Amino acid sequence: MSYENSAGLGVNNHYGARDTQDGIVGGGKLESSGSIQEAVVYFKASDFTVESATVAAFDTQLSLPAGSIVVDGLFEVTETFTTSGTISTSTKIHVGESGSEVANGVEASGQATEFAAATSLDAVGNGEWGDGTALAAQDVSVNFVAGGGTITSFTGGAGKVVVRYRKV
Fold first, then answer.
1. pLDDT of residue 143
2. Rounded CA separation 24/101 (Å)
3. Does the pLDDT of residue 23 top 50, yes or no?
4. What gap in Å lies between CA 154 and CA 132, rounded to an integer?
5. Which of 134, 140, 117 lies closest to 168 in space, CA to CA?
6. Residue 130 — very low, low, confident or very high, per pLDDT cuts 50/70/90?
7. Which residue of 3, 26, 50, 78 lies most exposed, with the fewest beta carbons within 10 A?
């Protein structure tokens, strides 16, 4: 463990190993000023579970506070995913309310390339996440779903999503 006391005022700073926090709720909620908050989730192929021929899911264990208004979602794939099955322009990565991610959430650009190293911003959103109204009266659980086409497996690949919201 490294400590620094360069001010001479008896104040110590600790400099230690920092994790990249891959996986579930990797980045957590970031401190920010003003009413806009950001939640960051790092994900990799091994986080997804193929639930059916058309859907692979990932429980982020993240929840947004009750009454929040989602502003946008930023997807960044940093390492290209290898998928087996049929990936088409209808295949999308959705992040949204658990159980209704497609209807109430944000999604990557709607191109088959969203599983390649790319960045995509969804400033519109779907349902409650896009109409500017506040979320439910209770905290909202957030999940990832990759759907459309036929997905049989995910291997390799990593990325992150940043959900920006106003905490009311």
1. 86
2. 17
3. no
4. 33
5. 134
6. confident
7. 3
Residue type, 14: H
Give me the residue spans of the domains in the chain.
Answer: 21-166
User: Which pLDDT band holds residue 132 (cuts at 50, 70, 90)?
Assistant: confident
Single pTM value for the model:
0.72
Dihedral class, residue 21 (left if φ above 0, else alpha if ψ from -120 to 50, else beta): left
Q: How far from 109 is each of 12, 113, 125, 157, CA to CA, in Å?
A: 46, 9, 11, 17
CB environment 101-122: b (16+ within 10 A), e (fewer)? bbebbbbbbeebebbeebebeb
Cα(34)–Cα(17) distance, integer angstroms: 30
Q: HSE of 125 in the Cβ direction (CA atoms, 13 Å)?
A: 24
Please give the Cα distance from 2 to 153 (Å, whole number). 43
Q: Are strands 82-86 and 158-166 parallel, antiparallel or unpaired?
A: unpaired
pLDDT computed for residue 46 by the predictor: 82
Domain 21-166 is found in CATH 3.10.20: no
Name every residue whose Cβ is closer than 8 Å to that of residue 5 and which is 6 or more positions away in sequence: 11, 12, 13
pLDDT of 100 > 70? The answer is: yes
Taking only the tens place, the pLDDT of each residue in 55-91 is: 778 888 888 888 889 999 998 888 888 777 776 666 7
Stated length of the chain: 168
